[in-house]
Amino acid sequence: MNEGLSRAVDRGLAACHTCGLVSPVDIGKCPRCRSRLHLRKPDSIQRTVALMVAAAVLYIPSHLLPIMTVVQFGDVSHNTIIIGMKTFWKEGAYPIAIVIFTASILIPFLKIASLIWLCAAAAGRVRPSPSMLGKLYWFTELLGRWSMVDIFVVGIVVSLMQLGNYMTITPGPGALAFAGVVVLTMFAAMSFEPRLLWDRLAERTAAADPTSTQPKP
């Protein structure tokens, strides 16, 4: 935290969460889009944690329950994400297996873990360095861009394998659970207020040196 650096919150200014216009929070509503103004997203940590807990609960059945049911010549097979990944790997389709593992197993787990850690930092439970905070938040935003890659791959595979009366593929309960994980993690990332991280950092800096956070006149 640089000495003499003032913040918008210290001056009672709030950025509209809808259109981004910076206005005095005392006016109550954004003069541009009439959305309610808040210095910080209300109950951000509580909402994010609740959404991440729900996503973590769905994460397990999304991998244990069948994500699709395949009927081929009367033979019915139920495939989970893990079974499908192993099948593609054994058949030599390594790129598809790697994409499924990365997007369906690794990325949701990393996103849940990183958001929970960011919430702990925003609540003051852990005290990482500013550099680590910035890198971890950037990494979390990067993970969110790849949340739907596996859905795209599964869609392509289903379209290629759908052979009319010879083979039919229908989604299973695992697909619904996994979709819930994706949606919940997306909403959790949207509800998280990253400026709370810098609020905790400012409090730590002020506690260490009360003169360091005083804004310049």
Explain this structure.
The protein has 217 residues and is mostly helical. It contains seven helices and five strands; from the N terminus they run ββαββααααβαα. It has a three-stranded antiparallel beta sheet. A two-stranded antiparallel sheet has the order 1-2. Residues 213-217 have low confidence and may be disordered.
Largest sheet, strands/sense/barrel: 3 strands, antiparallel
Task: Tell me the helix content.
Answer: 55-70%
The total tally of domains equals 2
Q: What proportion of the residues form beta strands (DSSP E)?
A: 5-15%
CATH architecture of the largest domain: Up-down Bundle
Tell me the series of helices and strands, N- to C-terminal. EEHEEHHHHEHH
Outline type: elongated
Quick take:
With 217 residues, the chain is mainly alpha-helical. It contains seven helices and five strands, in the order ββαββααααβαα.
Key traits:
2 domains; elongated; mainly alpha; two-stranded antiparallel ribbon; 7 helices; 217 residues
